[in-house]
Amino acid sequence: MSASASADDCKHDARVFAPIIDRARCEGKEDCVSVCPYHVFEMGKLSRDDRRTMSFGARLKATIHGNRQSFAIRADQCHACGLCASACPEHAITLARAEAPA
Q1: First vs last Cα of the chain: how many Å apart?
Q2: Where are the alpha helices (DSSP H) in the chain?
Q3: Using only C-alpha atoms, what is the Rg of the chain?
Q4: How far apart are the C-alpha atoms of 59 and 8, rounded to whole Å?
Q5: What three-state secondary structure class fits 77?
Q6: How many CA atoms lie within 13 Å of 61's alpha carbon, on the beta-carbon side?
Q7: Distances (CA, A) of 86 to 57, 82, 93, 94
Q8: Rounded-to-integer distance, Cα 61 and Cα 80, Å
Q9: 1, 10, 86, 101: which has the highest count of C-beta atoms within 10 A?
């Protein structure tokens, strides 16, 4: 997808789908941050608790990349256009139907 993609490319209302980031794949290259028209993503550092839940190989990979990864800090703003998933070179992002509020 091109960087010129816009909110018009998004087909769903917010809160229908949410991005899921595979911590074992994300290398923090920021492509998702650049293409998302709703500013769902920000780069951040993995916490110690985040790293504890990862396999040894995933922790090693994260360490090599400075423990920087993408976080969907505004996942409730996702409109499921798929631009993030298409832009991610590691295929670390998928879109899943959001859970209904309790």
Answers
A1: 35
A2: 31-35, 48-52, 56-64, 83-87
A3: 14
A4: 37
A5: helix
A6: 14
A7: 24, 6, 8, 9
A8: 28
A9: 10
Cβ(5)–Cβ(35) below 8 Å: yes
Collapsing DSSP to helix, strand or coil, 8 comes out as helix
DSSP bridge partners of 21: 93
**Tens digits of residue pLDDT in 16-54:** 999 999 999 999 999 999 999 999 999 999 999 999 999
Q: Write down the pTM of the prediction.
A: 0.84
62 within 8 A of 46, measured Cβ to Cβ: yes
* List of residues 6+ apart from 95 with CB closer than 8 A: 17, 18, 19, 20, 78, 80, 82, 85
